[in-house]
Design a protein that fits this description.
Length: 427
């Protein structure tokens, strides 16, 4: 392992971050578990950054990929592609967007990049609204709308980006307000901002902020924003890269917690739909999707291999009601973790929905983020046989818990016990 780490450092960028003081090589997985190169077995509560949505080595997906690879792996979007059409039909129907069109990409970054291209072209404006504490990818344009300093290496951007309040319920100038007053204050802030600028192309927002530490506003905030935006023709882009496909339990899409004013104009997706294969995409009404007046293709977006994986994975998720499982098992897990957090002064908040749970750590007696504590818990959880993630806004002090959505009650209890021991151990 040390040899592989040395080789990694010699040939890959310094900014390509690795977890753990002794980085981990994962060699194989099954169900909700993975194994490292030394044969250690771990319960996986992060799923390759929310990509392994159903299960590791899911037989239905591996069979579909193997059979497709035996026929043809790739032909590009210049040719008719049956698996791509079939998956697009299913996603368009699930999207609730009228007259929906779907464009496939290889990642969430590329999906958001495409959504920004569509919105700015359609609206003839390069001004974009984004949320503070947000993350939308690592391309030049998506870094430009990311409201998280830890993931924004440059201030240069092809877009003029203005940041709006509301993505974090328990921090910021409106945190002391109740939910209704919080929403009203955020709407007033947005309305005031729009009064000072030329009409922007769109607001891009994650229903639950992923890299930001699984933070979210009160239900209905984006519906209230949408009413203000619609009056000015401003589009709403819902970044569902981490929240889509039922992970939040209560809804299939994260935006549905804000559905009073109808669906978004554009929805982006990625990660879980491919169960580890590289699928991203954009859903929009035909008028928006067809607004480009130049040729555009995606060499690897919609390739037959990944589309076969996506079809099998989505079919499994729907047939086995993994959204319902996320609601039931995730509800038990979050209550178990809240009971633990209530006893520990360094746990500021346990938040989330379904199988998308964040635990924010602070220095006891303060509201000050404690990234060292988060790193210590990450290490201790690994020692106990559990893999979790990290995130956060001003500082990386939130643990991110997002297991495959087929997680069992027994596995949830096992993971919670390991996390409890790790959290108590930093005293």
């Amino acid at each position: 392992m040390n040899d592989l780490y040395a080789r990694h450092r010699n040939v890959l960028p310094d900014w390509l971050a690795l977890y753990y003081e002794e980085p981990l090589e994962i060699t194989h997985g099954e169900g909700r578990h993975v194994w490292d190169a030394d044969g250690n077995r771990y319960l996986d509560f992060f799923g390759g950054i929310l990509t392994t949505m159903t299960a590791h080595a899911l037989p239905e997906v591996t069979k579909a990929v193997s059979e497709q690879a035996g026929r043809i792996i790739h032909s590009s979007t210049l040719y008719l592609n049956r698996p791509m059409v079939e998956l697009a039909e299913r996603i368009a129907k699930l999207s609730a967007i009228p007259n929906a069109r779907v464009f496939f990409t290889t990642s969430g970054t590329e999906a958001n990049d495409t959504a920004l291209l569509l919105a700015t072209t359609y609206r003839r404006s390069n001004t974009v609204l984004a949320m503070r504490n947000s993350y939308h990818g690592r391309s030049f344009s998506t870094v430009g709308v990311t409201g998280n300093r830890g993931w924004s290496p440059t201030s240069l951007s092809p877009l003029q980006t203005l940041y709006v309040h509301g993505g974090v319920r328990t921090r910021g100038p409106f945190a002391h307000l109740d939910d209704d007053a919080f929403v009203a204050a955020c709407v007033d802030d947005l309305t005031d901002l729009l009064g000072h600028i030329r009409p922007p192309a769109a607001l891009i927002a994650e229903p639950i902020q992923g890299v930001g530490g699984f933070t979210s506003p009160p239900d209905g905030l984006y519906a209230a924003f949408r009413e203000v935006l619609k009056q000015r023709g401003v589009l709403w882009i819902a970044d569902e890269v981490q929240t889509g496909w039922g992970r939040t339990g209560e809804n299939f899409w994260g935006w549905q917690a804000h559905a009073r004013s109808g669906p978004p104009d554009i929805v982006t997706f990625a990660k879980g739909i491919g169960n580890g294969t590289s699928i991203g995409g954009v859903i929009a009404g035909a008028d928006i999707m067809n607004c480009l007046d130049a040729n555009s293709i995606s060499t690897f977006g919609g390739t037959q291999l990944t589309m076969a994986a996506g079809l099998a994975n989505l079919g499994y998720l729907l047939e086995h009601d993994l959204q319902g499982n996320a609601r039931r098992v995730g509800g038990l897990l979050i209550e178990r973790l809240r009971a633990v957090g209530a006893q520990l002064p360094w746990v500021r908040e346990v938040r989330g929905r379904g199988l998308m749970i964040g635990i924010e750590l602070v220095r006891p007696g303060t509201d000050e983020a404690d990234p060292q504590a988060a790193s210590a818990v990450l290490e201790a959880a690994r020692e106990g046989g559990l893999l979790v993630g990290k995130g956060g806004g001003h500082n990386t002090s939130a643990l991110r818990i997002a297991p495959p959505m087929s997680l069992t009650v027994a596995e949830a209890e096992e993971g919670a016990a390991i996390l409890e021991s790790a959290l108590r151990g930093i005293a």
